[in-house]
C-alpha cells in the first residue's frame, strides 16, 4: 500500500508516460511542478498560455522548460479552449488548471464540441498525507458539488473508489462523516450516510466498505471509536472521507493543510480524462503530487 505522496510519484515512473496539457501555464508554481514532472519522467507536457510570460517566469526562477512544447495564447479563455482541444484530439491525455478560474476551465471541458464530458458525475477528490495519520487519506467532495443529494453522493463515492483503486488500494474503507455517529432524522447527512452503508451491504455500491454515519473522530481514531462503543470495520482505519457538502470539505481540507501541515494532491474525475485541480495558492510540490495522481487515472 502507498503510504506517502513521494511513493505516489515513484510508482508513476513505472507506468506509460502520458502527456499533460496545461491551461494558462504562466505561473511560477505550475511551471516548477510541470518542469519537475517532466524531469522525473512522469509526463510529457504542452503549455498553453502567454509564451512571453511563460519564458520570462521560467528564466527568472531558473525553471527548465527545455523540450516542453508551448502554444502561445494570451487570452485566458482561448487558452483554456486550446488546452482542452489538445486532449480532445489525442495529443494530450489529461489536463491541468493554471492561472485561471475553475469555472472557465470546466466550461471548456463540458463543452459538447470538446467531447470530454463523459457519462458520469464530475467530482473533486483530494488525497492527503497527514503527519499523524497512519496512511494516505482521501477527502471528497470539497470542490465541485455544493449540496449533493443521495444519488450524487453515490456518484462521488464511486469516483473516489475508482481513484483509490488506481493506487492499488483494494476495497477502500469509506466513512460518510457527519456531526454525530447516529441516525437523526432532523440531520439529513446522517440519513444519507446510513443509506449509503445499507446500499453497500446489499451490493448496490461495490468495490469498497462503507459504514456510517460516523463522526470525524470515530472515522480516524480507533481510540475514539472504542471509547464510544462503536464497532466498525471502517472506524479508525478510514481511507475515504465522504463529506456532506462543499463547505465542510473545503474547511476540513484547508484545516489539514494549514493546521496539520498535510501535503496533498487534487484532481477532478468523472470526465473522459482527469483534470488536475488544486488551489492557485498551493505549492509546486502539491501540484507535482497532483500531476502524478492524475497520470495514474485511466
From TrEMBL:
Q: Which GO terms describe its molecular function?
A: phosphate butyryltransferase activity
Task: Reply yes or no: does the keyword Zinc apply.
Answer: no
Instruction: Please identify the protein, giving its name as recorded.
Output: Phosphate butyryltransferase
Q: Which UniProt keywords apply?
A: Acyltransferase, Transferase
Q: Which family does it belong to?
A: Belongs to the phosphate acetyltransferase and butyryltransferase family.
From the record, give the transmembrane residue ranges. none
Principal EC category: transferase
Q: Is this entry keyworded Heme?
A: no
The chain positions of domain Phosphate acetyl/butaryl transferase read 78-293
**EC code:** 2.3.1.19
Instruction: State the source organism's domain of life.
Output: Bacteria
Amino acid at each position: 500500500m502507498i503510504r506517502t505522496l513521494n511513493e505516489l510519484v515513484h510508482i508513476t515512473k513505472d507506468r506509460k508516460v502520458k502527456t499533460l496539457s496545461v491551461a494558462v501555464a504562466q505561473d511560477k508554481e505550475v511551471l516548477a511542478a510541470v518542469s519537475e514532472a517532466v524531469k522525473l519522467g512522469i509526463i510529457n507536457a504542452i503549455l498553453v498560455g502567454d509564451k512571453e510570460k511563460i519564458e520570462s517566469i521560467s528564466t527568472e526562477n531558473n525553471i527548465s522548460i527545455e523540450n516542453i512544447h508551448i502554444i502561445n495564447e494570451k487570452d485566458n479563455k482561448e487558452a483554456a479552449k486550446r488546452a482542452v482541444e489538445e486532449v480532445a484530439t489525442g495529443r494530450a491525455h489529461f489536463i491541468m488548471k493554471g492561472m485561471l478560474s475553475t469555472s472557465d476551465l470546466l466550461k471548456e471541458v463540458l463543452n459538447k464540441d470538446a467531447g470530454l464530458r463523459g457519462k458520469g458525475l464530475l467530482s473533486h477528490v483530494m488525497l492527503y498525507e497527514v503527519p499523524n495519520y497512519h496512511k494516505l487519506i482521501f477527502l471528497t467532495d470539497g470542490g465541485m458539488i455544493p449540496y449533493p443529494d443521495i444519488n450524487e453522493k453515490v456518484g462521488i463515492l464511486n469516483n473516489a473508489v475508482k481513484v483509490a483503486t488506481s493506487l492499488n488500494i483494494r476495497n477502500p474503507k469509506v466513512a460518510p462523516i457527519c456531526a454525530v455517529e447516529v441516525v437523526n432524522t432532523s440531520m439529513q447527512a446522517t440519513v444519507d450516510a446510513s443509506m449509503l452503508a445499507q446500499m453497500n451491504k446489499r451490493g448496490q455500491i461495490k468495490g469498497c466498505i462503507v459504514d456510517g454515519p460516523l463522526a470525524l473522530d470515530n472515522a480516524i481514531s480507533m481510540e475514539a471509536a472504542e471509547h464510544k462503543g462503536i464497532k466498525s470495520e471502517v472506524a479508525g482505519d478510514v481511507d475515504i472521507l465522504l463529506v456532506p457538502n462543499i463547505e465542510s470539505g473545503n474547511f476540513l481540507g484547508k484545516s489539514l493543510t494549514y493546521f496539520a501541515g498535510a501535503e496533498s494532491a487534487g484532481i477532478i474525475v468523472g470526465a473522459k480524462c482527469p483534470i488536475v485541480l488544486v488551489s492557485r495558492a498551493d505549492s509546486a510540490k502539491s501540484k507535482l503530487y497532483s500531476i502524478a495522481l492524475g497520470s495514474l487515472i485511466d
